[in-house]
Amino acid sequence: MSPSFSSKNIWEVKSASTTTPKAVQEWKLHLVRILQMNNKTILYAEDDIIIQKILGKFISKKYPDTLIASNGRDALSLFEANKVDAVVTDLSMPVMSGFELIRKIREQNTVTPIIVTTAYRDEAKQLDDAGVTILYKPIDTKELMKSLEAAFA
């Protein structure tokens, strides 16, 4: 079992005379995983400016290297110009849809995790075999964070 992340546990690991070398090693690995997880670059594509601002700010709190695009074409340009660890995209966007964005990303890269956000369940059914995670609007931020964390596990 991994130690939980809190100042109490840090104190216990540093000060407890009964701490085993294995427990200390587990704690160090846990801290490394936390640091690596937050060092990921997320590409977030959303055309609705209000949703974009809210979720973009939310994602960037945990993942400071978050790139934000308002349409699929801009998102694809950002994807091609940066090392992106995960993509979060809407499906219905101007200029280039999320469907087209996913297709073009998969032509270049089959392993980058993609999380789709959409209000349209019928549209999302077209992605059943695309190897993406689908979240329905309104987005539950806890579910979004779980999906991102699972993508990096």
Secondary structure elements and pairings:
Elements: H1 7-15, H2 21-38, E1 41-45, H3 49-62, E2 65-69, H4 72-81, E3 86-90, H5 98-108, E4 114-118, H6 121-124, E5 133-136, H7 141-151
Parallel strand pairs: 1-2, 1-3, 3-4, 4-5
Report on the architecture of this protein.
The chain is an alpha/beta fold and 153 residues long. The protein has two domains: 7-37, no CATH class; 40-151, Rossmann fold (3-Layer(aba) Sandwich), CATH 3.40.50. The protein has seven helices and five strands. The chain has a five-stranded parallel β-sheet with strand order 2-1-3-4-5, sandwiched between helices. Helix 4 runs parallel beside helix 5. The modification 4-aspartylphosphate is found at residue 90.
State the end-to-end distance.
15 Å
In the predicted model, the low-confidence regions spanning at least 5 consecutive residues are: 1-13
Give the CATH topology of the largest domain.
Rossmann fold
Beta-strand percentage? 15-25%
CATH class of the largest domain: Alpha Beta
Counting H and I runs of at least 4 residues, what is the number of helices?
7
